[in-house]
């Protein structure tokens, strides 16, 4: 092969990658729009296209529709918005955790971060009389950061330092222990079980604009920090020594990205409870079609997470009609095979 042919081949590879990623981005945006329509359409009462249009129009105008179908659509708009926000934040959080730890099993649920946030909120409700989204958010942040620090500390103890398997085992053990504490707090309070169940499984059914308005700025800031860290995370994937040689401050970027990831997870848990496996499944699926470039992986993961959680919530409403199956149960059902497939690999490779 001549040098000219080699040069042309090298030049065509980035162009091909960009074209493929552009197609994936377009498909992801269309999938978000489709998931929104499905979320508004299905539930305990299916609706027609005209009723969807009437419900959305009435919501924009601030009026109450007289048609029951349009009224059902209007009531589904907040939970659809929360599912989009929460799914995007959880997937972005999982992608960040996988990048900074180079651990394919890193996920807010598996590492116990969202369970720690949920436990802190449950303790606040049960023993401290905490009420309101602001109190929940503060407790969730404290619980998430304490749990993240504890899991990382336990996973780094012993020979070999921090490894993917040790982190996963530490996270799984911590999650099991904290879930037991949550159950111990909830079970004696049968009169308030419906209220507390929300913090045990994870659901977007109690979406309120006031609470979303409180956490939305935090989610936006966390997402912005994540995107700004993308180039440095690409260097980090080459190894600490190479990253340092490229001018990346390894310790600082890990801390900043970790804070962003934990904050995204905690904010979602404060309003939707602990929803697991979104941060595990979505980055892996996106990585298969777009590669490991964090500049594309992070935003595509956010879009994929929004689609996954919105569809999981819709599926839960359809399967549980006239009630509903919590979105956290659906994502766990879908995510368990993914976790098994990753764990069955012969060698746990770093990302």
From TrEMBL:
Question: CDD domains under this entry?
Answer: TM_ABC_iron-siderophores_like (cd06550)
Q: Which SUPFAM superfamilies match?
A: ABC transporter involved in vitamin B12 uptake, BtuC
**Keywords, comma-separated and alphabetical:** Cell membrane, Membrane, Transmembrane, Transmembrane helix, Transport
The answer to whether keyword Oxidoreductase applies is no
Regions crossing the membrane = 21-44, 56-73, 80-97, 109-129, 136-155, 167-188, 209-233, 253-284, 296-319, 325-343
What membrane topology term does the record carry? Multi-pass membrane protein
Q: What is this protein called?
A: Iron ABC transporter permease
